[in-house]
Every structure is written in C-alpha cells, then in structure tokens.
Design goal:
mainly alpha, globular
Length: 190
C-alpha cells in the first residue's frame, strides 16, 4: 500500500471521533464553550457555512441569518442546560452541514422568512447539543458566552472570506459549499 493510501486510511479512521466526540471539554466555562464549536467538525462546518451563505445574500439577509443562528442557538443552549432533549438532534446537526453546504454551493437566495426559519431550526439543534454538553463544574453563563463567541467568529470568518475575495474566486466558495454538503452526507451515513 502506498503512503498516500495509508494516510487516507488513517484520516478516515480518525475523522468520526473528531466529528462526534467534540473534544476540548477538559476546560471550564468560556474555554469549554469556545472549544465545542471549534473542535466539533459538524458544528464548525455548519457555522462557517452560515457565514458563507450570509455573504452570498443581499440586504438584510446578510446580517439576519447569522443573528438568527446565534440567537436561536442561545435559546437551544438554555434548553439544553435545563436538560431538554430534542429528537434526532445529531441527525439535525449533520443535516445542517448538508443543507448549509448545498445552499452555499448553489448560492441560494431564499425568501427571508424561509431562510430565517431554516436557519433557526438548525441553530436550535446546535444550541441544545451545546447546552447538553455543559461540562461538570463549568459556569453555564461562561460556557454560553464561549459558544456564542466561537459561533459568531465562525460566521464572521465565512462572511469575510466571501466578501473580501475577488469575484473570480466565487466558484471556490461554491466548491467549499459542495465539500461541506458532501461531509454532511458522510456524517448522516455514519
């Protein structure tokens, strides 16, 4: 077996743990909250894609989509802190990676109410997951601040990437969306 195939095999073997284990919870409070979205592949891709998708929009949708995600995610986090679970939560999170990736890949411009509702549904699943994974002894307030800051930062990076790249790079953004969608399919199949 050549080196490239060996490296691919190792990467495939290791990725499910990265996608679903959400490492980084050895920290408390703000640091744990920052770590959850940044080190969970599913959260990272979905939140980055929201920023990409928002930047592809015009008018109020540019700020409404990220704000809807962050606000609804906080509500979900509070529900998770209270121990509320929602059915098919992990499926919803993986589905968000697929959906947001597809929306970026086709540069979809949905009606504002539809786009916000879709964003809110997926954000709720991410928020509940964050809330349910509150580390022992961690301050819920600090933890919530951490996952809000990390999420907003991922949105901002995706947004800035699209807005500051030359127009000629737009196909690369769509390819990134397609790659995210493909990862969503893989997450759903895992």
């Amino acid at each position: 077996m050549n080196l490239r195939k060996t490296l691919y095999a190792i990467a495939l073997f290791c990725t499910p743990a990265l996608a679903f284990a959400h490492p980084g919870h050895g920290h408390e409070g703000i640091m744990a909250g920052l770590a959850h979205p940044l080190f969970g592949l599913d959260h990272l891709l979905a939140m980055f894609a929201v920023g990409l998708w928002a930047a592809q929009q015009s008018g109020a949708a540019r700020w409404a989509l990220p704000l809807t995600f962050v606000g609804t995610m906080l509500v979900g986090g509070l529900l998770g802190f209270a121990g509320v679970e929602i059915p098919l939560m992990e499926t919803g999170i993986a589905g968000s990676v697929l959906a947001f990736g597809l929306l970026v890949a086709v540069a979809a411009r949905l009606p504002m109410a539809t786009a916000m509702a879709l964003t809110a549904v997926f954000a709720l699943t991410h928020g509940v997951a964050h809330g349910l994974e509150l580390p022992e002894l961690a301050s819920p307030f600090g933890y919530a601040i951490g996952f809000i800051v990390a999420t907003a930062a991922l949105h901002a990076v995706g947004f800035a990437l699209v807005r500051f790249l030359p127009q000629a790079a737009a196909p690369l953004v769509r390819i990134a969306g397609a790659a995210s969608a493909a990862t969503g399919v893989w997450l759903l199949a895992s």
